[in-house]
Design a protein that fits this description.
Blueprint lengths: L1 H39 L7 H8 L7 H34 L6 H4 L1 H15 L5 H22 L6 H24 L3 H12 L7 H20 L1 H7 L3 H6 L4 H23 L5 H13 L6 H22 L6 H23 L4
Helix pairs in contact: 1-3, 1-14, 2-3, 3-9, 3-12, 3-13, 3-14, 5-6, 5-7, 5-8, 5-12, 6-7, 6-12, 9-12, 13-14, 14-15
C-alpha cells in the first residue's frame, strides 16, 4: 500500500531536483553570455576570433589592450564580486529566515566602508592595505552586531534592528570623515563608496578567488544545515543540526566573502540584498538557494556594469545602477514582510 506513495514522493523529489539543475544551468548560461558580451561589445565591436587569439597570448593590435587590460579584468572582477555578494547575502537571509537580513542592511558593508574611508582620508593609505583593513572591519562589525543581539540565542529581528542601528552610526562616521576631507582624497573615497569595477586589474581577482574557495566552500558544505534552519531552530535541532555551531560558521564564511568583495570593489549597493529573493522567486521550493543566488549576484553586477557603461545617457559606476534597482525593491519587500511576515 505504501509503494505508490513512496513512488510519488520519489517522482516529486526528482522533478524538483531537475528543475533546480535547470535553473542553475540557465543562470550559468546568462552569466556566461553576458561575460562574452562584455568582451565582444563596448564602444566598438571586437571580432570573436581576435578575442580568442588575444586570450591565447597572441599580440593582436589594439585587441590585446582593449580586451586583456580593460574588458577582461573588469568582467572577471564583476563576476567574482557578484558571486561573493550573492552567496554571502543569501546565507544571512536563509539563516535568519528574513529577506531583510542582508549585509547591506545589518551593517557589515558599512563597517568595511567606514574602515576604507578612514584609511584613505585620514591615514592616506591606498592599495591592498585598504582592502585588508576593510575585511578586518567587516568581521569586527559582524562580531559586534552578533554580540549585541545575543540573548539566549540570536533572533533574526533583533539582529536586524541592532544592525540597522550600527549601520546608522557608521554612516555618521563616514559622513563626518568626508566632511573634513581634502578634495583630492574625498573624491577617491566617494568613488570607492559608490561601488565600482572601474580600473579593475586581473591581480585584484586573486583575493576574491581565494575567498570564494575558502568561505564559499565552507558555506556550500553547510547547505543541508542551512536548509534545515529555514524550518526553524527547534526543527533543525531535532533533525540533528548543531544550530549554534552552524550559525557561527555561516556568519564567519558569509562575512568573509562580503568583506572581501567590498574591500576590492566597494559596497556595490543591494546586490547581496537582491540576489537571494530573486533566486528564490526563480527556484521556488526546489532546492538550495546558495548556488542560484551566487549566479544571480554575478548576473546583476555584470548586467548593471554594462548598462552603466553603455546603455545610459552618461557613464555610471555599477553601484549607482544596482542602487537604483534595489531601493524600490527594498520598499516593496518591507511592505510585504510587514503584512505577511514573508521569508525566503
Amino acid at each position: 500500500m505504501l509503494a505508490p506513495f513512496i513512488d510519488s514522493i520519489a517522482r516529486n523529489r526528482h522533478r524538483r531536483a531537475r528543475r533546480h539543475h535547470c535553473v542553475i544551468g540557465l543562470l550559468f548560461t546568462l552569466v556566461a553570455a553576458t561575460f562574452l558580451l562584455t568582451l565582444l561589445l563596448g564602444q566598438s565591436l571586437t571580432p570573436p576570433q581576435d578575442i580568442f587569439r588575444a586570450l591565447m597570448g597572441e599580440d593582436v593590435p589594439d585587441v590585446a589592450f582593449t580586451v586583456g587590460q580593460l574588458r577582461l579584468p573588469r568582467a572577471m572582477l564583476a563576476i567574482l564580486a557578484g558571486l561573493s555578494f550573492g552567496l554571502g547575502g543569501v546565507a544571512f537571509q536563509i539563516m535568519l529566515r528574513n529577506p531583510l537580513a542582508s549585509p547591506d542592511i545589518i551593517g557589515i558593508s558599512w563597517g568595511a566602508s567606514a574602515a576604507a574611508v578612514f584609511a584613505i582620508v585620514v591615514l592616506g593609505l591606498s592599495g591592498p592595505i585598504v582592502s585588508i583593513l576593510a575585511v578586518i572591519a567587516g568581521l569586527g562589525v559582524a562580531l559586534v552586531v552578533y554580540a549585541l543581539s545575543f540573548r539566549n540565542g540570536v533572533a533574526g529581528t533583533r539582529l536586524i534592528l541592532v544592525g540597522i542601528g550600527v549601520s546608522a552610526m557608521l554612516e555618521s562616521v563616514i559622513a563626518y570623515i568626508l566632511s573634513t576631507a581634502p578634495a583630492w582624497t574625498m573624491q577617491e573615497a566617494l568613488r570607492w563608496l559608490t561601488g565600482s569595477v572601474n580600473g579593475a586589474q586581473l591581480g585584484q581577482s586573486l583575493p576574491l578567488v581565494v575567498a570564494l574557495a575558502v568561505f564559499g566552500g565552507l558555506l556550500l558544505s553547510r547547505a543541508r544545515d542551512l536548509e534545515a534552519l529555514r524550518l526553524g531552530d527547534d526543527t533543525a535541532a531535532a533533525l540533528g543540526v548543531r544550530v549554534g555551531q552552524t550559525r557561527v560558521l555561516v556568519i564567519i564564511a558569509a562575512v568573509g566573502m562580503i568583506a572581501s568583495a567590498t574591500a576590492i570593489s566597494g559596497p556595490i549597493a543591494f546586490v547581496a540584498f537582491l540576489a537571494g529573493p530573486i533566486a528564490a522567486r526563480i527556484v521556488g521550493n526546489n532546492g538550495s538557494l546558495l548556488v542560484p543566488a551566487a549566479l544571480t549576484g554575478a548576473a546583476l553586477v555584470l548586467v548593471g556594469d554594462y548598462c552603466g557603461q553603455f546603455l545610459l545617457p552618461s557613464r555610471y559606476p555599477v553601484g549607482v545602477v544596482t542602487g537604483a534597482l534595489g531601493a524600490p525593491y527594498l520598499i516593496f519587500l518591507i511592505v510585504r514582510v510587514n503584512r505577511s511576515g514573508g521569508s525566503l
